[in-house]
Amino acid sequence: MKKFLIKILLFFISVAGVDILYGVACQYMNDHSKGGGTKSRHYTCKESNEEVLIFGSSRAKHHYVPDIIEDSLCLKCYNAGEDGNGIILSYGFLKIITERYSPKLIIYDVSGYDIYEDDNMKYLDLLKPYYREPGIDSIFWQVNSRTRLMMMSKLYCFNTSCLRIIGNYIHPMTNYPKGYYAIHKAMDYEPEVMVREKETVDTLKMAFIKNFIKKAQNQGISLVFCVSPTYKVEGDEQYYDPVKQLCEQYGIPLFFDSNDPEISSDKHYFQDRTHMNDAGARLYTSKLMHQIKLHSLL
Amino acid sequence: MAFNNFSFWLIYPFIFGIYWLIPIRFNDWRKAFLIFASYLLYMNWKPAYALVLLGVTMITYFGGRLLEIQAIAKKKKRIVCFISFLGLLPLLVFKYYNFLNESLTNGLTTIGLSFSMPGLNWAVPVGISFFTFQAVGYMLDVYHGRMKAETNLLDYLLFVSFFPQVMSGPISKANELLPQIKKPHFFNYEQGKQGLKFLLWGMFIKLVIADRLGLFVDTVYSNYIHYNGTTCFTASVFYSLQIYCDFAGYSLMAIGVARTLGFNLINNFRRPYFAVSITDFWKRWHISLTRWLTQQVYIPLGGSRCSKSRTYWNIFVTFLVSGIWHGANWTFIIWGGMHGIFQIIEKVLGLQKYEGNSWVVKTIRIIITFLLVNFAWIFFRMPNISSAVVVVGKIFTSYGAPNLSGLEIYTILILLVALAILFFKDIKDEFLPTRFVFLQKGFVRWSVYFILFAMTITLGVLDSGQFIYVNF
Predict the structure, then answer these.
(1) Nearest to B457 among A4, A156, A167 (CB)
(2) What was the pLDDT predicted at B109?
(3) In sequence order, which residues have a C-beta less than 8 Å from that of residue B124 and are 6 or more positions away?
(4) Quick check: B81 contacting A, CB < 8 Å?
(5) Model confidence at B5: pLDDT above 90
(6) Of B192, B226, B458, the CB nearest to A189
(7) Do A149 and B458 touch (CB under 8 A)?
(8) Closest residue of B to A163, CA-based?
């Protein structure tokens, strides 16, 4: 037994050593990334200084064209949307950003990732390299108290993302100008109508949305929630009800364009049912800017 | 609690430590502790369902005792039927009630009758098919005189609830596990080392390969309508690899954890995708279930000691039962039926074995067997028959380059490296067991452990990924 335990102990001591070295290397490459998602996230957190920021999921990333926003509002804009993410990551980003400065306007594209229950651990993935930033650890603990222990390991901290970080450090294959990721493909099939099913509202996510709103209000940031257009999706009105109620409660404008008659009826503006292509994004962004100006949000 | 759950790895060192710290002369305390730990881990999911586990244990325990004291064969038969029904009742209710209800309602509707019973909105207790089969299997063994009824309730409680295997097997035979439970265990370094090796390899193939392949498979199969046949075929091959790595991974972890506690569980997999026929495949895949079905279904039906047509019927029925065991859905029944039919065809053509030395023939047979198994997995994976038929139709009619956009380049890289490691190990174990002796050298061995561990932590899909077979 003694021999067995000693060998296990030695094994884990060497793992701990590697863990430390690996953590230092990954953190360095993350902070000095040359492109790709790693660079754009690092820019969002540590370098951004734009007056207008876009938050949300892939729908935010693909639907809001910073150039058009800049031309319309005469303010610099950066798109901080992240594929497959929602309020948990966005709230973390906002906390990190507001440690440095307060943007003038935040446009938040709402999606199901912000409202409904699913595996919340996945939303922490992209936030892991920023765990040590002020106030970020508490987000992890609220999602899962065991992350206090898990995040002690850098091997875990950079789990899965290490190859992406290395790739983006050595030879990035993608770059997102001003954070925007244009899709240049139009839908070449006719999808069936998707009816939104009833899902369970995630109380933790709702709490994070409230925190996000309060944080923005406390920092004097104008905040607007948007639901960008979809194609052949029914039931969005009820689907976004929980956010609508919060917007009413906190006096936040919500631009609900899920069924915009001009865009939502034309599949050439879409790559799939929930993602517009560049043409759709440009048209939608222009229309949204018009609405924002009409409401004198700035 | 599953082995890929972080909490398990916080608790397990305590289980290991306390178990071995209890002096050997207090062996009953050791067992009691293992029962306590097993129930505690089981209750982590839904505490109330531990009562189902306890209920099945008690029914079969007392059933076994009752069978032993009954001398009259006719009465014995009645008892075994009744107790088996009672033992299987939770499984029937939790797993099959809704399926039977819906099938019956749909069947009656098609002939113009309207009849409906309320559906049950209950979750199925984790591992119910596994522990029920293990417990009922014990009772049938007692009935057939293959073993004596267990008199020690403590031993029997541990036999049914032993935490490494309660959720997803392997399904142990009572005459294998109960003697081990009775015997006091001394820590054995070699056994402990072997256990950790199994554990590490199981973790690696589950977290690095199965869960990563699963990301692509889920993407394609949940939107199969938008993908061409080549992509659907790629997803089907990935699923074949995923389910192997997932289930074999779980079994290896179960065997590994059990070994560190001094128990030897049956090895559930023997490189199934190197099978040269479907018959051979079932000697390598989920071995403990095949063994259970052979002993409790196939042989009582007459096995192969009867006419040819009757043997074929027995094979078909056995595999239908296997299909139903996997899930309450027509897709599983079709999957089981397909495996039954494949084996009957093999038997008719005399293809169930290959004892020649030709590598070409062997390779061709391995590929054909894999493709047949792969084809059947499509029915196993899809939520209903119509979607499975669409996927199969696409594979044969819609060609084009595979769409791998659901996979990041880094994911493809990870998968290539991990699959290369898996293939190397399986090829070595299957065809070249005496080669690559240098891998046994201390430094190389430890380097391999270290690399596998680091790859699991850095490249594995942590934080999520339930085991596929836990649902059964």
Answers:
(1) A156
(2) 80
(3) B94, B95, B471
(4) no
(5) no
(6) B226
(7) no
(8) B410
Coil/strand/helix, residue A222: strand
| Paired tokens of A221 | 């940031």
**Domains held by chain A: number:** 1
Q: Is the pLDDT of residue B470 over 70?
A: no
Domain, as residue range, for A243: 2-294
Task: Give DSSP secondary structure letters for B412-472.
Answer: HHHHHHHHHHHHHHHHHHHH-TTS-GGGGSHHHHHHHHHHHHHHHHHHS--S----GGGG-
| Nearest residue to A10 via CA among A2, B189, A25 | A2
Partner residue opposite B459 with nearest CB, options A146, A160, A167? A160
Candidate from B125-139, B246-260, B455-469 with smallest mean pLDDT: B455-469
Q: Determine the pLDDT at residue B2.
A: 76
Q: Which of A80-84, B44-48, B177-181, B319-323 has the lowest mean pLDDT?
A: B44-48
pLDDT at B465: 56
| Nearby residues of B146 by Cβ (< 8 Å), 6 or more positions away | B175
**Bridge partners, A275 (sequence order):** A272
CATH number at residue A216: 3.40.50.1110
Nearest to B225 by CA among B371, B408, B386: B386
List of chain B residues whose C-beta atoms are within 8 Å of the C-beta of residue A4: 187, 189, 192-193
Residue B239's pLDDT band (cuts 50, 70, 90) = very high
pLDDT at A225: 96
Asked whether the predicted pLDDT for residue B284 surpasses 70, the reply is yes
**Contact call for residues A131 and A140 (beta carbons, < 8 A):** yes
Element (H, E) at B131: helix B128-143
Among candidate residues B356, B207, B371, the one with its CA nearest the CA of residue B278: B371
DSSP 3-state of A108: strand
Q: Determine, for residues B449 and A11 on separate chains, whether the beta-carbon distance falls below 8 Å.
A: yes
- Let me know how many helices (H) and strands (E) chain A has, helices first: 13, 9
Answer whether B463 sits within 8 Å of A121, measured CB to CB: yes
Task: Please give the pLDDT value at position A172.
Answer: 83
Residue among A297, A288, A292, A180 at smallest CA distance from A229: A288
Closest CA to B164 of B15, B18, B46: B15
**Angle between helix B128-143 and helix B174-182 axes, rounded to 10 deg:** 90
Give pLDDT tens digits for A60-116: 999 999 999 999 999 999 999 999 999 999 999 999 999 999 999 999 999 999 999
Let me know: does B208 contact B414? Beta carbons within 8 Å. Answer: yes
Whole-angstrom CA distances from B188 to B16, B236, B326 are: 13, 42, 36
Taking an 8 Å cut-off on Cβ atoms, the answer to whether A1 and B20 are in contact is: yes
Q: DSSP secondary-structure letter at B205?
A: I
pLDDT in tens, B30-68: 999 999 999 999 998 788 899 999 999 999 999 999 998
**Residues B232-242: what's their mean pLDDT?**
95
The total of other beta-carbon atoms located within 10 Å of residue A215's CB is 19
**In angstroms, what CA-CA distances link A148 with A26, A254, B8?**
20, 36, 16
Please check whether residue B341 is in contact with residue B316, taking contact to mean a CB–CB distance below 8 angstroms.
yes
Cα dihedral sign for B161, B165, B171, B176? negative
Do A160 and B461 count as a contact with CB atoms less than 8 A apart?
Answer: yes
C-alpha B132 chain-centroid distance: 14
- Nearest residue on chain B to A159, alpha-carbon basis: B458
A158:B458 CB<8 A: yes
Rounded to whole angstroms, the Cα distance separating B304 from B299 reads 8
The mean pLDDT of B353-382, rounded to a whole number, is 94
